[in-house]
Amino acid sequence: MRRYAEVLFRYWPLLLLPLIVLPVGAFVLMRHAPKTVVVTADLWATQNPAGYNNQYSSQAGNESAYINEYLQSPSDIGPIIGGSAAFAQLLRTSPAQAANAEQTLLQSFSVYPKGQYLLNVSFTGQDEAFAQDAVNGLIAAVQTQQKTDTSSQAQTGIATAQAQKDAAQRQLAQSRNALQDYMDQHGYQSNDLNNTSGLELNTTFAGLKQQFQNDQTAYLTDEQTLSNLRTQAALPASQQQATFYVKDQATPIVTSSRKKILIAMLEALAVALFLSGSFVVLNTLLDRSLRYPDEVTQVLDLPVLAVVPYRAASRSGGRGPAVAAPRGRLADV
Fold first, then answer.
1. Rounded distance, CA 296 to CA 303, Å?
2. Which end of the chain is more exposed for a tag (fewer CB within 10 A), N or C?
3. Which residues are CB-neighbours of 186 under 8 A, at least 6 positions away?
4. How far apart are the C-alpha atoms of 118 and 59, rounded to whole Å?
5. Contact 83, 137 (CB under 8 A)
């Protein structure tokens, strides 16, 4: 330990240098580093998007899957940042940064469900105005796409709903005719359909009556569905309803730079301590000289007759070592 302490006190200015320079350098770099901004917005899913009806997922999960797929396969990111004043300004002042922001735009989004109906959309960037425009632009672009999908789905669904209604109408006609024939054969009147006293004991009549009522309900349901689809298809895409609405508007959050600076300085200090400690250890291990009388006794198993003080010699200006008389029993011999 004496050797380590000697190296430490001998080279302390050199050892102190990295302990000062590295943390200060890390502080300066972090202070001048661009800040990171996260803009986040909460959405509320009102229904599953078209084509996303996973029964094992929540409405928020299906909505998140729809938005994430939209981010993975857009042919043009213009609908997202086309109306961004911040991007237009960036495009004028720094085309290179604008091109980089455009390339990394889609990878900077994060969409995930927070509950049964609540989901979160966030964007991480360095420009607060651009990040806020990106979140609002994505929400508007997805809503526009959903409205277009709803209009197209309504147009496509009309033919299917019409076929279902026609089939239900034919089934209703068959059950009506079967019931009417049975009533004519057994002398039942129309008012007997509402008179249940005794007639329900006739299982055949009751079954035909129930079948007619079921077919009538199915027909009316299909007719209402077709009417709703025609009404929906008649609306322009701009008046269609999206499957979510914005619950909390886009809000910027600046990540804590103080915490980042502190972590960077602690990491730099750890590196400086490692470098200084390594220097002390290596310098001590590489020094094979015998510096203390007890080391001579232990290593060479010889008595010490005299000691040349190293520091006194270094202060003598190089005129030769100053020999000090040894103290102790050997000095009297």
1. 8
2. N
3. 205
4. 8
5. yes
Q: Is 289 left (phi over 0), alpha (psi -120 to 50) or beta?
A: beta
Q: Which two tokens stand for residue 157?
A: 């669904």
pLDDT digits (tens, 9 = 90+) for 294-305: 777 777 777 877
Alpha helices for the chain (secondary structure H): 2-10, 12-32, 59-72, 78-81, 85-93, 95-103, 128-186, 203-234, 257-286, 293-300, 310-315
Question: Rounded distance, CA 19 to CA 22, Å?
Answer: 6
CATH number of 37-254: 3.30.1890
CA pair distance 168, 174, nearest whole angstrom: 10
- Rounded CA separation 247/2 (Å): 69
**180-234 per-position pLDDT tens digit:** 888 888 777 777 666 655 555 578 877 888 898 899 999 999 999 888 878 877 7
Q: Do residues 7 and 284 lie in contact, with contact meaning Cβ atoms separated by under 8 Å? A: yes
- pLDDT tens-digit map of 41-100: 999 999 888 778 888 889 999 999 999 988 886 556 777 877 777 777 766 777 776 676
What does the domain layout of the chain look like in residue ranges? Answer: 1-29+258-286, 37-254, 289-333
**How far is the C-alpha of 132 from the C-alpha of 125, rounded, in Å?**
10
pTM comes to: 0.54
Please, which residues have CB within 8 angstroms of residue 280's CB and are 6 or more apart in sequence? 4, 7, 8, 11, 15
CA distance 261 to 29: 9
Q: Whose structure tokens read 């290179």?
A: 96
Radius of gyration of the chain (CA): 43
Q: Is 307 helix (H, G, I), strand (E, B) or coil?
A: strand
What is residue 247's predicted lDDT score, i.e. its pLDDT?
Answer: 92
Contact between 249 and 41 (Cβ < 8 Å): yes
Q: How far is CA 112 from the centre of its chain?
A: 7
Residues 136, 137, 142: CA angle, nearest 5 degrees: 100
Report the residue count for the chain: 333
